[in-house]
Amino acid sequence: MLKIGLTGGIASGKSTVLDFFKKKNVPYIDADVVAREVVDLGTPGLAAIRELFGDTVILDDGRLNREALGSIVFHNEEKRLQLNSCLHGFIRQRIDELSTMYEEEEAPAVIYDIPLLIEGKWYERLDTVWLVYVSPEVQVHRLMERNGYSKEDALARIQSQMLLDEKRPFADVIINNDGTPDELYIQLEKLWHEKLLPLYNK
Ligand code: ATP
C-alpha cells in the first residue's frame, strides 16, 4: 500500500487537490478529524488532558472545553508543548490503526491529509510526500480573496507557519497551483494516471 502524505500551506489548494482524489475513490485519512476524535467524550486522550490541565478544561457534560484549553496554552508555551506531545501520541496511534485497516482491506494507496506533515516529521512514516505549492504572491492573493483579509493580515498568517519554500525540499512531488483550476486538473490527472492507476491495475 502506497502511503502518500499530502500537504501544503494555508490556502495553497490542499482541499481542492484532495477533492480530486476523493472523487477517484482513493481512501484518505484526515488528521484534523482524527485530532478531534482522540479527545472525544470518554477517550483516553481526553482523560490525559484532564490529568495535565485539571477540571477547568472540562465542560459540565464531560466534553473538552476547547476555549478554556486554548486560553491556557495561548499564554503558556511550556503547556502548549505538553499538550502537543500528549495529543501527538494519541493521533499517531489512531492513524496507525486506520492505516492497518486499509492495509487489511488491501487498498493500493492511501492519502494522509496532514496539515503539519513536515513540522511533525510524519514523512518519516510515509512513502512519498506530495506538496501543493503556490508562490508567495498567489498565496497572499488567494488568502485575501477567500478569507477577506487585508494584505497585512494575510502575510502575517502565512509567515506564522513554515513557508512553502521551506517545505519544498521535503517533497517528492510538487503540485504547482499557481495557475488556473484547469491547469491544476491537468497535473492531477497526470498524477492519477502515472502514480496511482498502475497500482490499481496490478
Ligand atoms: P486551508 O488549508 O487554508 O484550508 P487549502 O490549502 O485546503 O486551504 P483550498 O481551500 O483548496 O486550500 O483553496 C484555497 C482557496 O483558493 C479556495 O477558495 C479555492 O477555491 C481557491 N483555489 C484553489 N485552487 C485555485 C486555482 N487554481 N485558481 C483559483 N482559485 C483556486
TrEMBL record:
Pathway: Cofactor biosynthesis; coenzyme A biosynthesis; CoA from (R)-pantothenate: step 5/5. Gene3D superfamilies: P-loop containing nucleotide triphosphate hydrolases. One of its GO terms (biological process) is coenzyme A biosynthetic process. GO terms for molecular function: ATP binding; dephospho-CoA kinase activity. It catalyses: 3'-dephospho-CoA + ATP = ADP + CoA + H(+). The keyword Nucleotide-binding applies. Its EC number is 2.7.1.24. One of its GO terms (cellular component) is cytoplasm. ATP binds at A11, S12, G13, K14, S15, T16. InterPro entries: Depp_CoAkinase, P-loop_NTPase. It is an enzyme of class 2 (transferase). Keywords: ATP-binding, Coenzyme A biosynthesis, Cytoplasm, Kinase, Nucleotide-binding, Transferase. It is found in: Cytoplasm. Catalyzes the phosphorylation of the 3'-hydroxyl group of dephosphocoenzyme A to form coenzyme A. NCBIfam families: dephospho-CoA kinase (TIGR00152). Belongs to the CoaE family. This is Dephospho-CoA kinase. It comes from Veillonella tobetsuensis. The lineage of its organism: Bacteria, Bacillati, Bacillota, Negativicutes, Veillonellales.
